[in-house]
Amino acid sequence: MVSNHNTINNIDNNIKCTLHPNKDIVFFCLDCKLIPCCIQCTSSKGEHHGHKTDPLESTSNILSLMNNFKNDIYQKVIERIEINETILQESNDKYNEIQSQFDINNNSLKKEIKKIHDIISIIELDIKKQLETTFENNTLINTIITSSINNDNQILSTIINNNNENENDRTTTIEKLNEIIKFNDQQIYDNGEDFIIDRDTIKIIKQYQQSLIVLNNNNNINNSNKLNENDNQIIHFHNQIIDDIKNNLKSIYFLNNCRFIIEIDENNNKFFKWDNLKFYVYIEGNSFKFKENEGTAFKNNCNILSKLKNQLPSTVMLLDGFNQKLTPGILPDGVESLYLGDIKQELIIGSIPNTVIHVSLLDGFNQILTPCILPDSIKSLYLGDIKQELMIGSIPNTVIHISLLDRFNQKLTPGILPYCVKSLYLGDIKQELIIGSIPDTVTHVSLKDEFNQKLTPGILPDSIKLLDLGDIKQELIIGSIPNTVTHISLLDRFNQKLTPGILPDSIKLLDLCDIKQELMIGSIPNTVIHVSLKDGFNQKLTPGILPDGVKSLYLGDIKQELIIGSIPNTVTLVSLKDGFNQKLTPGILPDSVEWLYLGDINQEIMIGSIPNTVTRVSLKDEFNQKLTPGILPDSIKLLDLGDIKQELIIGSIPNTVTRVSLKDGFNQKLTPCILPDSVKLLHLGDIKQELMIGSIPNTVTHISLLDRFNQKLTPGILPDSVEWLYLGDIKQEIMIGSIPNTVTRVTLKDGFNQKLTPGILPDSIKLLDLGDIKQELIIGSIPNTVTLVSLKDGFNQKLTPGILPDSVKLLYLGDIKQELMIGSIPNTVTLVSLEDGFNQILTPGILPESVGLLYLGDIKQELIIGSIPNTVTSVSLKDGFNQKLTPRILPESVGLLYLGDIKQELIIGSIPNTVTNVSLEDRFNQKLTPGILPEGVESLYLGDIKQELMIGSIPNTVTHVSLEDGFNQKLTPGILPDSVESLDLGDIKQELIIGSIPNTVKSVTLEDGFNQKLTPGILPDGVESLNLGDIKQELIIGSIPNTVKEVNVSTSFKHQIEPYVSKNVKIIK
Fold first, then answer.
1. What Pfam families does this protein's entry cite (predicted)?
2. 822 vs 842: CA distance, rounded Å
3. Does 105 have pLDDT greater than 90?
4. Which of 45, 393, 459, 872 lies at a C-alpha separation of 20 to 30 Å from 511?
5. 3-state secondary structure 30-77
C-alpha cells in the first residue's frame, strides 16, 4: 500500500508545473519547443501568454517532445552537467587558491605588522633609555647636593644647638671679648688675671673652627651651580608627525582583488601596467584603437583574435580565463612579445607564431609545455607560478635569457633549462636547486630579493662571470660563489655578512649598493681592481676596507663620510657621480689618483681637494662648482668639459693643460685667455656659446670639430697656429678663410656635409684624409698642394679624372664605395696602399704606371695579371692579404718584396725571379719549400715566422741574411746556405750551435738584444768583420774566432772587448 501510495504521489508531483507547483501541466507551448505549461503559464501574467498551445494529450506533440528530448535536450543536459562539474572544479580550485592566498596574506600580515611592532618597541625602549639616563643624572645631582648640605647642616646645627644650650656662658665670654676690643684695655691681663679657659670655652673655640671650615668650603656655591645641571626633561610628541604616521600606516597595504590594477586613460580606455609596459584591455565593438608601442590584453570573454590578425600590436597578453582555441594562425606572425595567464584552451604546435621572441607565462598558467609548443624563435622566457610540470624539451634550445619569478614552483632537474641559456634571473622560487639545475652555459646570474635557496658549492656553475645579488635569505658560505665570477653587483638590501673568502679571488669588478651588513677588512678580495659605490651606499670606509688592488673607483651618493685612507693609494682613477655629497678635504683623494671625473657633486671643492698627481680631469654635465684659480692643480694636462654650470674665469684652467675637449652642451663663454696659452690640442663638440677671435689661443696646433659643432667659422676664429684640422658633421657652412693658411693636414670624418668649393681647403694643405663625406667632390676641391691623400672606409664619392690633383704622390685607399676608373688615380702617384677591406676591381690601368711602391692589405677583389703595373719595384703584402699569387701577378719589375701573415699558399713562380730583396715579417705562416724563394734573391730578412725552415728554403743566391728580433726557428747546419757572406742577428729565440752559421760568412752583426751564448765555434773561422751592439750574454775566451780582423763596437755595447780578441784586431768604437 505504501509503495502504491508513493507511486501515486510521484505521478501527482510529476504532473505539476515546475514553475507553479500547485498547478497541473495541461498544455504544450507550440511557440517554445513544446515546453509543457500550466494554466497560470498561459494566463495574462504568465510566461507563455498569447502563445499557441495544444492539449497535453496530443500524440504528435508527445512524440515530437520525446524525439527532441532524446536527440537534443538530453545530450545538452549531459553537457550541462559536465560543464557544471568543470566550473565546480574550477571554482573549488580557485577557492583553494584563494584560501591558500588568504593564509599567505595572514602570515604576511603578521610578519609585516610584527616588523612595525618591533620598530615601535625599539623606539619605545630607546626613548625610555634616554629618559632613564637623564633621570639617573638628575638623581645623582640631587644625591650629591643632599649629601653635601646634610653634612654641612649637621655641623652647623650642632653649633647652633650647643650655643643655645650655653647661652649665658657664651654671652659672658663675648662680653669680655667685646670689652677687650672696645676699650683696648690690657689691665685684665696686666693685673695678672688669666682668662679662665674652661670646658665650655674649649668647646666654643672648636665650634668656631668648625664654623670657619664649613663657611670657607664653598659647598653652597657648588651646590647652587649643581642645581643648574638638573635637566627637567619633558617629553613632547609631534602630533602632526604622529597623525601622518597614522595616515601612512593606513596606506601601508592595499587589497588587490585581481592581478592587475585597472586604470582609465583620458580617452576612457581601460589599461593596466605590467612588466614596465602598458596594456590596453580590448573591448569588442568599442571603437578600440590599437596603440603601436603599447600592449593589448584580451579577456576571457573574447573570441575575436581570428578577426584581428592584421591589426594586433607586437605585444599581446591573454588574460586568465581566455577561452579561444589558438589554432595556428590565430595569433599572427607580427606578434613578438606574448604574455599568457591561466588560458583555458590547450596549446598546440603552431599556436605561438615563429615571430615571438619573448614569452611570459604568468602565475596560474596551466597548460602542458610539450616540446615545440614554444617555438625556436623565442630568445627570452619569463616563468611565474605555472601549474604543469616542465620536462626536458619544454624550453627550446634557442632561449638565451630565462627569468624564474617569485612563486615559481617547478623542480629544475638537470636539462630542464637547456644548454643555450646565457643569463638567468631567479626570484623567490620554491623548489631547491641542485647541482646541474643551472646549465654550464650560463654566464650571468641575478638572484633577486627574497631568493631563498641554499647556495652550496657547485649550485652556481663555473661558467658564471657576472653575478647580481639582492636581498637573498640564505647565508653565503665560502664556495657559494664560483671562482670564475669576475663581476659582482651587491644590490640594495643585500644583507649577508661578507667574511673574508665569501667573495672569491677571481673578482675584478665590484658594485656595491645600499648593502646592510658592515664591511670588514678582507670582505673585498685583493684581486678587485674596479669598485663602484652606488647611490645609498651606507658603510664606513675605514682604511683597509678597500684593498690595495683597487685601481678605479666610482662614487655615487654615498652616505658615510670619507676620511684620509678611505681610498687606497693604488687608485689611479676616481669618478664622483651626480649627487656625491662628501667633503673633499685635502688628502681624501690620495696622491695615486691620475684621472678624475666630476659630476654634479654637492660639496664645494677647495684648493687641495684635487691632488697634484692628477693629470686628467673630466667635468661632466651639471657640474656646478666654481673653478677659482688653484682648484684645478698645475699637474693637469688634459681637461674635458661638459655642460658645466659655473662661469669660467681667467685662471680657472691652469697653464699646464695641453689638451682641452669641450663636449656637447658646453655653454660657457670663451673670452680670450679663458683657454690658456699652454693648450696645444682642442676638441669642440656642440658648444652653445659663439666663438670669437681670440677664443682659441695662438698656441693650439691641432683642432677637432666634432659632429654637431654649430658655430660660425669666420676668418680668424681658428688661429694661425693651427696645423692639423679634424672636421666631423659640423652644421655651419665653411667659407674661404675659415681654415687658416697654416693648416697642413685636414681630416674630413664620416658625415662631413659641407661643400668643398675651390679655395675652402687652403693651399697650405699637404695631407688630406677623407671619410664618408656627403658632398660631391669637384675638380679644385682638393688643392694642388696636397701630396698625400687617404680615402677611408666608407668614402663614397666618384673619383672622376682630375678630382685627385697631380700634386698627389701618396695614396691610401680603404673600403671605398665608388668604382675606380682609369684616370681616377693621377699619373703623379708613386706610392699606393690598398688597406684592409678595399673592394674595387683592379683592372689593368687603374693603378697608373707612375706607381713604384705598392702596399696590399686584406683586399677583397682577386688580382689578375696586369692589376699591378710594370713600374712597381717594391711590393708589401700585409697581414691578412688573402689573394692567390699565381705566376705573373707580381710583375717582373718588382725587386723588393715584403710578406706579412698572408693567407694564401705560395707556389713556385708566385715570386718573380727579378726580386732581389725579400723580407718575411712577424707572423708570416707559409711553408718555404725549395723554389718558393727564387734564385734571384740576394738579401733575406726573417722576423718571427711561424713555419719551420728546411734545407733549401733559402736559395743559394742569398748573400745577406738578417734574423730580426723574435726569430724563433732552429738553425741546424745547412739551413743558411754557403752563399751567405753577411749575417745580422737580433734577439733570436733559438740557441745557436756549431754549424748554424756557414763558414762562408765574412761579416756578422750582433744587434741590440742578441741573447745567445757564443761558445767557441759558434762564429766560424771565416768571419773577418764583427759588429757588436747591446748583446745580453757575456763573451768568453774563444767566442770570437782568430780570423776576425775588425770589431766595430757600438756605444750600447756594455762589455769589455779587448780580453777576447788578439792584439792585431782593429777595434773601432
1. FNIP (PF05725), zf-B_box (PF00643)
2. 10
3. no
4. 459
5. CCCCCEEEEHHHHCCCCCCCCCCEEECCCHHHHHHHHHHHHHHHHHHH
Judge contact between 885 and 905, C-beta under 8 A.
no
Question: Cβ–Cβ contacts within 10 Å for residue 522, how many?
Answer: 16
Amino acid identity of residue 911, one-letter, is I
Instruction: Give the count of beta carbons closer than 10 Å to the beta carbon of residue 846.
Output: 19
Q: Which of 1019, 1015, 1052 is nearest to 1035 (CA)?
A: 1015
Q: How far is CA 633 from CA 10, 576, 610, 652, 720, in A?
A: 110, 17, 7, 10, 29
- pTM above 0.70? yes
The sign of the CA dihedral 256, 258, 261, 267 is negative
How far is residue 507 from each of residues 550, 663, 1014, measured CA to CA in Å?
Answer: 11, 34, 47
Given a contact cutoff of 8 angstroms between Cβ atoms, the answer to whether 844 and 822 are in contact is: no
Give the span between the Cα atoms of 754 and 375, in whole angstroms. 50
The amino acid occupying position 17 is: C
Residue 852, pLDDT > 90, answer yes
Distance (Å, rounded) from C-alpha 583 to C-alpha 589? 11
Whether 929 has a pLDDT exceeding 80, the answer reads yes
Q: What is the band of 815 on the pLDDT scale with cuts at 50, 70, 90?
A: very high
- Bridge partner list, 745: 724, 767
- Percentage of the residues of the chain whose pLDDT score is greater than 90: 67
| Sequence letter at residue 361 | L
Please, what is the Cα angle at 129 between 124 and 135, to 5 degrees? 125
DSSP 376: T
Query: Structural domain boundaries of the chain?
Result: 2-125, 130-228, 443-528, 533-614, 622-724, 962-1069
Contact 267, 273 (CB under 8 A): no
pLDDT of residue 170: 46
Query: Measured on CA atoms in the order 534, 540, 541, 547, is the torsion positive or negative?
Result: negative
Q: Is the pLDDT of residue 186 over 60?
A: no
Mind listing the pLDDT tens digit for each residue in 641-651? 999 999 999 99
Helix (H, G, I), strand (E, B) or coil at 256: coil
Average pLDDT value for the chain: 89
Report pLDDT for 312.
Answer: 78
* Separation between Cα atoms, residue 754 and residue 450, nearest integer Å: 59
Of the candidates 348, 351, 356, the one whose C-alpha atom is nearest the C-alpha of residue 381 is 356
Using the predicted structure, report yes or no on whether residue 1 has a pLDDT greater than 60: no
- Mean pLDDT over 492-499 rounds to 96
Among residues 8, 538, 710, 1062, the alpha carbon closest in space to that of 727 is found at 710
At 99, list the grid cell.
584560501
To the nearest 10 degrees (0 to 180), the angle between helices 74-165 and 219-228 is 160
Non-local CB neighbours of 809 within 8 Å, separated by 6+ positions: 787, 788, 828, 829, 830, 831
With residues binned 3-state (H G I as helix, E B as strand, rest as coil), the percentages for the chain, rounded to 5, are: 20, 15, 65
What string of DSSP letters covers 942-958?
A: E-S--SPP-TTSS-TT-
**Model pLDDT for residues 1004-1027, shown as the tens digit of each residue:** 999 999 999 999 999 999 999 999
Instruction: Kindly report, residue by residue over 873-923, the tens digit of the pLDDT.
Output: 999 999 999 999 999 999 999 999 999 999 999 999 999 999 999 999 999
- Per the DSSP assignment, residues forming a β-bridge with 897 are 875, 918
Q: Is 1028 helix (H, G, I), strand (E, B) or coil?
A: strand
Distance (Å, whole) CA 714 – CA 883:
49
Grade residue 259 by pLDDT with cuts at 50, 70 and 90.
low
Which pLDDT score, from 0 to 100, does residue 287 have?
57
Q: How far apart, in whole angstroms, are the C-alpha atoms of residue 798 and residue 39?
A: 101
CA distance 272 to 268: 13
Diameter of the chain measured on Cα atoms? 171
Letter for the amino acid at 175?
E
Give the integer Cα–Cα distance in Å for 790 and 726: 14
The x, y and z cell numbers of residue 1062, run together, are 788578439
